[in-house]
Batch of 3 targets.
Target 1
Amino acid sequence: MSHRRIPKRKAILAGAGAVGIAAAAVLLPQANASQDGDSRSGAEAPRKLSAAAAADLLEQLGQKLGDAYGGAYYDADKQQLVVNVVGDDNDVIVQVNKAGAVARDANNSWGDLKAATGTLSKKATIPGTAWALDPRTNQILVTADRTVAGARWDRLESAVESLGSGMAKIQKSEGEFKTFLEGGDAIFGGGARCSLGFNVTTQDGQPGFLTAGHCGVAAEQWSEDQNGAPIGTVQAATFPGEGDFALVTYDDPAVDAPSSVDLGNGQTVEIVQADEAAVGQQVFRMGSTTGLKDGQVTGLNATVNYPEGTVTGLIQTNVCAEPGDSGGALFTGDGSAIGLTSGGSGDCTNGGETFFQPVTTALEAVGAQIGDGGAGAGDGAGAGDEGAGAGDEGAGDAGAGDAGAGDEGAGDAGVGDEGAGDAGAGDEGAGDAGVGDEGAGDAGAGDAGAGQAGNGHAGADDGAAVPGDGSDGLG
């Protein structure tokens, strides 16, 4: 199988993204604890912010901090933006605190961390390794799968040590890093099975969808059914290299291509926008093999050394995935498209790491837009603190199901507006929290009316089983 094809439309990646923000969800008390002892004092009391408002504030603030900026994360428990500050420049500290954020002592600047990943690329490009930036720890998280041993392990350790103390840490994975090419809707091409990611509109107004790049290089035409008639043709595919994404246009320009994710069991949720990932953020993945699963983002700007080659610029998560889930949608409780399933280690029995192609980068590279280009993204898609929760408004009948919905007692939380009865996460219920922001307690579907905004990717026919996992979320 060839792993690289010449795209019909050359996909030119945009430059580095906006300043990275990490979000510490309520399942990460260690992040909150580390903040308490290190936060800087200032004249202004920290502002309580929604996750979306924190991201907007960081976009305004982060670029002004220069070399003093060491990354940032959203403390969902305290509803505060925490900004890592390197050095003792009081003007920077005052600027952060005056803006309503919390200044936190840090040793490594964001620029230094990015530069260190370049050193790893030169010294440790070893199949079975990966690294990503983690603003919560202000370090690079380096992961080695079970194939990295002996001389290759020694080489990796040496590369990490060369970065200096406190710059990076190594963790071991029990599985093997691989792409999840095989078989949320199944698509088939050239004997391979993948998952459809998000429906999009191309720059010339044609309907299409995004999937994984390694799927796009495996076959040029894709079908809804195994050995079925083609429904779409690959227009651009990148893998390996600077991403793992492909654009497929529908052969029928009049096809119905809704901006929604098929959760199975007749349930769908709407996608209203594309957005950047945040470390600690709760995310949901839909794939044709394993259905709906959830977890958290654990790293940004990840580099993964697959057997087929190195891929850069990915999102690292602890969401499980298996062969056939490749290309499937990664999304949030406020209806934001986040990523496309690339690969990882483990499975949905034992867990493991899974990496995703950022949707924003893929869209810019191929010149496409989510759905019809984002119309209506402002209607109910917010993640503010107004709390349109699906909780006690009647979500219990069918929303989260008998399985309950949340470690924090969100038994009635779900996906829907005014009760998730008709928008639950599937047969098994919503697992830990439905598909909601901070999904604990009564906050079910998220901060400002995410019930109607929902979340999702383009649906198709197969209707994968929906285990309905969930956990305390990020809006």
Target 2
Amino acid sequence: MTSTTTAAAERLSATTLLRFATAGSVDDGKSTLVGRLLHDSKSVLADQLEAVEHASRSRGQEAPDLALLTDGLRAEREQGITIDVAYRYFATARRRFILADTPGHVQYTRNMVTGASTAELTVILVDARNGVVEQTRRHAAIAALLRVPHVVLAVNKMDLVGYEEPVFARIAEEFTAYAGELGVPEITAIPISALAGDNVVEASAHMDWYGGPTVLEHLETVPVSHDLTSCHARLPVQYVIRPQTAEHPDYRGYAGQIAAGTFRVGQEVTVLPSGRTSRISGIDLLGEPVDVAWTPQSVTLLLEDDIDVSRGDLIVPSGDAPATTQDVEATVCHVADQRLTVGQRVLLKHTTRTVKAIVKEIPSRLTLDDLSQHPDPQRLVANDIGTVRVRTAEPLALDSYADSRRTGSFLLIDPADGTTLAAGMAGDSFATAKAAAAVDDDEGWDF
């Protein structure tokens, strides 16, 4: 490796990483925005751009359709919509980025949940001609539910409304008020034209009334924190390693990826849900012993005592253990075509643990128009956001999602065919009042 290459690698490794997602209604211009970001930030290879130009010419377009840089599925290109989550990786001199371009069609809202679940920032696009619509509100609600700390409102297609400031101001005010009620901590509104490139990478010459950052400037400078080492330490056990060889006759290690926090040799730990305690006698990282390990490293912990530990258990510091419970109350985003109903038998997957469960109550469903809670709906359908109470067959050690996105989340799964029904976030979700409704227990899996 040359000194120039080494210096470049060092500069790149020194930059921070931002994970962000894009969302918006159909035809709001998400893929065009992403394509413009990649193109104008010089993150597109020559052969990629040539392929896009060729595909655009074959469709009778004079200028290259930058949306084709992300809409890679054949069905996406034929219909002109995004269907699947498209991940893109690019970098500038100031920061590295992992981008999830999520679908806008209401049918694929579940994909937005996937793309935004690990994002630190979400860009929500709005067509300046249409303003805030139902899908805009749904995406804002999901961003708030997933505790995405930064939201950018990109008011797109400003060129089609004459770059008029009152149009932008009205939309920004309406969205900010709505997202603020959901508890979104930070909202930045930027007027753009993804097609023309206004305020995407370069400042617009048509909107001198706007003095804020471009989209890329904001992405490069927004503060992000990846320091999970000071959080509650959690290690979901994925695999028990027992080689039982002549070299390692008594080796028993508990392997997994540290979800949060830091573990040290000599630290007293508790294994949940059993509650048994021991001390860490050793930590193996990539086959080598270390004294300390932190998130997101994949490690093997060795304990002083020979206690029962298996896949799905959670190893935590003894002085910082979450409570175990069989009664889970959470906000869920329903992502399946089939309904979720009171009394339904499900599987609940939390970290590496999967247990049988039953839906005991669905106290409320969120009404997106006014953020009111519809009490006792008895069922949730695709794209609904609601509160559920679930009873599990075995105790679970759940953190609040507000404290930990990794150990405070779970999935509800159909035990018949393995379909993911809902994505759940334990504890309180929005800064809105929740209606409580009593629902009679159904027969079935009554734990």
Target 3
Amino acid sequence: MASVATSAGLESLHALFRPGLEGVPATQSAICAIDGQAGRLTYRGYEVGQLAIHSSFLETAYLLIWGELPKPDQLQEFEQEVQMHRRVSFRIRDMMKSFPSGGHPMDALQASAASLGLFYSRRALDNPEYIVAAVVRLIAKIPTMVAAFQLIRKGQDPIQPRDDLAYSANFLYMLTEREPDPLAARIFDACLILHAEHSLNASTFSARVTASTLTDPYAVVASAVGTLAGPLHGGANEDVLTMLEQIGSEDQVEPWLERAMAEKQKIMGFGHREYKVKDPRAGILQKLAEQLFDKFGHDPLYDRARKLEAVAADRLGPKGIFPNVDFYSGLVYRKLGIPEDLFTPIFAIARTAGWLAHWKEQLGANRIYRPTQIYTGHAERPWLPQGAR
């Protein structure tokens, strides 16, 4: 039996306690680095803006998971393997058809991702071939399941992947039932790169905790999807669009912000625990949105967003509160014709690469997570029979 903590021991624990583990190092990682003061984000040492311009999502996923940019033959082999494993079992599709049409796509994705373990889990975590196969299957099948549920809930059969289309173009094709414009596919691919990894956030921590038990990678990704589904993590870009709609027009931006601040409302898409300047991904997404508007037509919500950013710079900027990745990403997805409740599942498609990178890294130096707690309940109490309670 564990000994009762001493008074000095409890005081020591209280001194170390940080709600939400804020600022407490929980692992060592070589995957991603964030400089919140300078507004820099790097994957394995490569600046994310450079990757968004020059790389592809699958090349970036390879970098995150295996640690180095692939050589041409390595990338070609990886792309071909992913292409070969895009399809999902008819049994999974049949399972998805039994989901309620009004269910949230994130719940459908979590259940579907977990179900992959029934088909492929051997937990051969010491087998390099198993590791590679699991990475390929998850990166290949997660987009297919997101697109499949979108059509199933509309009463339609899912569209099979097209082997002649690249990763992002194929997803948009399965989702919208038409081949996407090359610019739209490229911009969507860049969005996936920007969302692929972001250090030890809540869903990535969830993935590492689950991985530390040595369960299968499908359970790891399913647990991360469940964590991402929470409104304090994923989904803020949906709320940004709702906020911009509520503002009404550009001339209402300033009075709306004054009221919101007076009422201590959260300004959606602003602020980040890591960044004290504008999120570097937000600036890139803003440029991507402008490229879409130039080709496919303007979105008046973008004008409100720019005005809100300008007005908020004077009021929130001195507090270190600036636009984050969610502020402009919803405008990009909206222009691509993606339903708002699919924004977070698309986040999951991208972040699967980061989750798998952390899964693989966790296996390399594993120790099961077992933090302690500070007990705040009753002292020992005597049992009372029902009549004496």
